[in-house]
Amino acid sequence: MNKIKELFNGDWYFNTFYGLLLLAMATLPLTNWLMLPIALLMFLLWLIKWDWKEKWQNIRRRRALPAMICFTAIFLMLIPGLFLSCNKTEAFSAFDCSLWLLIAPILLLTTSPQKFTNRHFNSALGLFSLGIGLHIVIILIMAGRKFIATGNTHYFYYSSLSRLIHPSYVAMYATLAFFFLMQMISQFGKNMTAIKRAGIIALAALLFTAIILLQSKAGLICFFLLLFIWIIYYFIKKRRILPGIIILSVLIGGSIIIYKSGWIQKNRLLESVEQVRNHKDDPYGTDSSEMRLTLWKTSAELIRQNMPWGVGTGDADQEIRLHALKKNYSNIIGHRYNAHCQYLQNLLETGIPGLIALLAFSIYPLYYSIRKRDLLYFSFSIIVILNIAVECMLKVRSGVDFIALFNALFFINAAKPSVEI
To answer: Which of the 8 DSSP states describes residue 153?
Structure first.
């Protein structure tokens, strides 16, 4: 109880603001329903505290003006995208979905560095991890009930396991939560009680299991890439190179054995490798990787035709459908697909300026995390950069809310003395 009281001081504004932030973190799996009202309440509270001079001083104290520009420019690019669009309804819908890209940096980068401490950051991330863990327990229980009723194990895999949110997003959340828990063990494990340490390890094991079962290809690649980076970083820092090499070799070998053994019922990574290999023989196959290759080809053709400004925020998806019909790309005709790559999507919607804004949004956190030697922020940046390469995650609320909120949150935590594991 005393630790909870320490998080909340006598400032009613900060207490209410931080309480809403914790609610947003804990309920992230329900972001499609809860995040918008929470964001609007936080923004209303921010407006009520009419101290613009202090807000500006907080940005200056953190030297956060470059970050503010990089983080909000991607939302501001929706304005020229709106004027370029013929379909204004779709363009205005993009404003609604992307609102958190503007609000989150403004709210968090203007908070007081003295009031928002590392303890507040860790508590928020801890609550987020518990929320994701609870979500995973619930979907596993639901899958277990269906398995008992039918005897079919496919309910434990991919979209059959995660029906409310696309598996890629749950895997993204779980990956970040996993590495946060690893950082907590590394930093504070010696001072934890045995029960708390065991609870964190159990939660991390649950998250790892979920990442495997969800079978998100980008999620699996991100997770194992970051796991290798963390192991290398940790053992180099501890100057224990040989144990690091041994553990890394065991992990690589074990991963190869598991993925080639057939123990996992639906191995989507191996399926994708086969689909890419067979793409020349069957260029219009209907499996996910083959359809994604066709969408990238379609988007690239449209981008070349509409350089340098793009087709507009509201027209991009319709242009993809019309172009597919014109070229008879049979595997994507009749579907409402986007480019399935945020870099291509931004180029198609708002041209070269849109791509520059996206690169600034995604690369600046990577640069800043390396500069501050913040491995968790670096991991988040890698997760975002890789996932938006194969999904338009800034076109749906599950991606926008997570990326915008955590990007701003990690920045204000890193804009302090170095945070290392």
So the answer is: G
pLDDT at res. 124: 95
CA 328, 386, 127, 100 dihedral sign is: negative
Separation between Cα atoms, residue 382 and residue 375, nearest integer Å = 10
pLDDT, average across residues 195-201 = 92
Alpha-carbon gap, residue 270 to 47, rounded angstroms: 51
Rounded CA gap, 317 and 335, in Å? 10
Closest CA relative to residue 231, chosen from 241, 218, 222, 221: 241
Rounded to whole angstroms, how far apart are CA atoms 227 and 255?
Answer: 12
Tell me the HSE value of 147 on the side-chain side, using a 13 A CA sphere. 13
Task: Kindly state the tokens that stand for 102.
Answer: 């503007």
Model confidence over 44-89: pLDDT tens digits? 999 988 788 999 999 999 999 999 999 999 999 999 998 989 898 8
pLDDT in tens, 140-164: 999 999 999 999 988 998 889 998 8
Quickly list H helices, 111-240: 118-150, 158-161, 167-188, 194-214, 217-237
Place of tokens 């191996």: 270
Phi, psi of 200 (to 5 degrees): -65, -40
Continuous H helices in 238-267: 241-261
Tokens in use for 119?
A: 């303890």
Kindly report the number of other CB atoms within 10 A of residue 280's CB atom.
7
The verdict on pTM exceeding 0.85 is yes
Q: Is 231 exposed, middle or buried (0-12, 13-18, 19+ CB in 10 A)?
A: middle
